[in-house]
Design goal:
The complex is a heterodimer of chains A (112) and B (112). Chain A has 112 residues and is mostly beta strands. Chain A is built from no helices and 11 strands. Helices cover 0% and strands 50% of the residues of chain A. In chain A, strands 2, 4, 5, 6, 9, 10 and 11 form a 7-stranded mixed beta sheet that branches. Chain B is built from no helices and 11 strands. In chain B, the strands form 2 sheets. In chain B, strands 2, 4, 5, 9, 10 and 11 form a 6-stranded mixed beta sheet that branches. In chain B, strands 1-3-8-7-6 form a 5-stranded antiparallel beta sheet, with no helix packed on it. Classes of the chains: A mainly beta (112), B mainly beta (112). At the A-B interface, strand 5, strand 9 and strand 10 of A face strand 4, strand 5, strand 9 and strand 10 of B.
């Protein structure tokens, strides 16, 4: 069953804590993306990766970090430097370029 | 770096009516895509239209693209309550951008 998965569905972060959101795909896609969505808003690009071991900053990368050690996986770490992390985080993948992106179900991050 | 802008922000119609949403963008594009998002879920790709295409159909969906006006419209015919969702347009930018830029979306409510 091909698809893209995100975990956990809900994540709670304490002050000063780093948390990591998981994103895995078995679609054999080269490109992967992380977006942030705030209530009533569109998607803003945090980071993206076109190939393994390479990634680029998106529009709002400050306070976030990523790694791309495997084609299937693109975890996002929300660091303590991100002062307003409460949002819905969406991961997507594609064959690359400005083509169709396939989205995971999202992770909602809340601050305790 | 918002590219697409949907209009209206919200639309409420009765089941069986048609729903039309519009998207305007600023720079030349290679393609334009429409996505749907049910509340609290990931985005689902609906349709992609390339810059050299003027109209595309998929089931009850009809998308038009007017590159001279830098605008696109999404028509959903014979709407159903299950069409209730937010609809986003996404554009790339000519010049080889591998990123998509999403608008803020139109929230469609179809009343039974």
């Amino acid at each position: 069953d091909g698809g893209i998965t995100q975990s956990p569905k809900y994540l709670f972060r304490k002050e000063g804590q780093n948390v990591t959101l998981s994103c895995e795909q078995n679609l054999n896609h080269d490109a992967m993306y992380w977006y942030r969505q705030d209530p009533g808003q569109g998607l803003r690009l945090i980071y993206y990766s076109q190939i393994v071991n390479d990634f680029q900053k998106g529009d709002i990368a400050e306070g976030y970090s990523v790694s791309r050690e495997k084609k299937e996986s693109f975890p996002l770490t929300v660091t303590s430097a991100q002062k307003n992390p409460t949002a819905f985080y969406l991961c997507a993948s594609s064959f690359g370029g400005p083509e169709t992106q396939y989205f995971g179900p999202g992770t909602r991050l809340l601050v305790l | 770096s918002q590219q697409g802008e949907e209009d209206p922000q919200a639309l409420s119609i009765q089941e069986g009516e048609n729903a039309t949403m519009n998207c305007s963008y600023k720079t030349s594009i290679n393609n334009l895509q429409w996505y749907r998002q049910n509340s609290g879920r990931g985005l689902v790709h609906l349709i992609l239209i390339r810059s050299n295409e003027r109209e595309k159909h998929s089931g009850r969906l009809r998308v038009t693209l007017d590159t001279s006006k830098k605008s696109s419209s999404l028509l959903i015919t014979a709407s159903r309550a299950a069409d209730t969702a937010s609809y986003f347009c996404a554009t790339d930018a000519k010049g080889g951008s591998e990123k998509l830029v999403f608008g803020k979306g139109t929230k469609l409510t179809v009343n039974p």
